[in-house]
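Handoff note, outgoing to incoming analyst
You'll be picking up this chain. Sequence as last confirmed:
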Amino acid sequence: MSMLLEDLLKKVPPETEDRVARAKERYNQPVRDALRHETGLRLNRPVRDQDPGSVLDKSENRSVKISIESGPPDKLRGKVIHDDDVIAALLIPVRNDLSQLMDSLQRVAEIIDSLPRTPQVTALIKGRHENIPPVTALADDLLKRAITFKMIEWILEGGEDVLGVYTFSESKDDPEGCKEGYIKLYWAMIGLISRNLGVSVDDLTAVVLTHELAHAYTHIGSDIDGERWRNSAFAKTETSLIEGLAQYYTQAVCRRIANSAPGSFTAYEELLKHQSEEYHAHEAWIGAFTPEEVRLALIETRRGGPGKMLEFNMMLKDASARLSTKISKDARSFESHAK
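Most recent structure output, in case you need it:
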């Protein structure tokens, strides 16, 4: 007995689509606001009039459209769950329910044991408490079988962008410039994975949305000088750096929107446990470098062409040294004026 991933996705409650759509609408603007703050990048940039003497600035915008798709992404279509794992795959979505059932049965057993042994109690229970141990054992066996299949890792074998994906279209006037960005959120995949992680659909949607928008902002976001990352350079940048930057800003934004999406950071952490090494690259930057240092290294990397992780880390250290020198000079200047 085998099963296609598509067949498993059909078992995701259909109302999940609406939940993902509503979460996208709720978090879209707060996430964009947070990304602008964290990256210092904007999707619109000033464009000066052709007349060199003109003081009129125009605005050149880049939009990022977001759609909700059922999935799975094309690369996962036809992916087969083999015989030994089908039962576990079907049980995984109810893993938390099984754990809660076992806890509840244990509490019921303790309550029954605490009741006085009177004829009234005996008549009420009718010996049915004897069913608790076998039901508990059944739930335990089902739970043990569920954890034999590492579903998330199995899904991620086909690539990490299975919950959402960022793509872009080229500008006709400038092939190296992006005309528009596109994000797809795969609602059935989000529903399936959220149950596996034990987090809410809303919180995982916030994480996926943030990660994909982080790709968009690091690519087509305009810096203070109006510079963006050229398409070919972005496409040829090492995956570990592209995903590291998206992950760095995802964790930062999830912290920033904690009031509106309090479970999003937990969802980010739970998903991270199952992701590949490339999605952990940013962990070395957190705490070791300030957000301003990361931002400066990002800006310099974008202006230099395809990014490489080794060079980016060198830029981080250089940014740290330069900012430390600036702070030291500012402090000395302040002390001089104070005297």
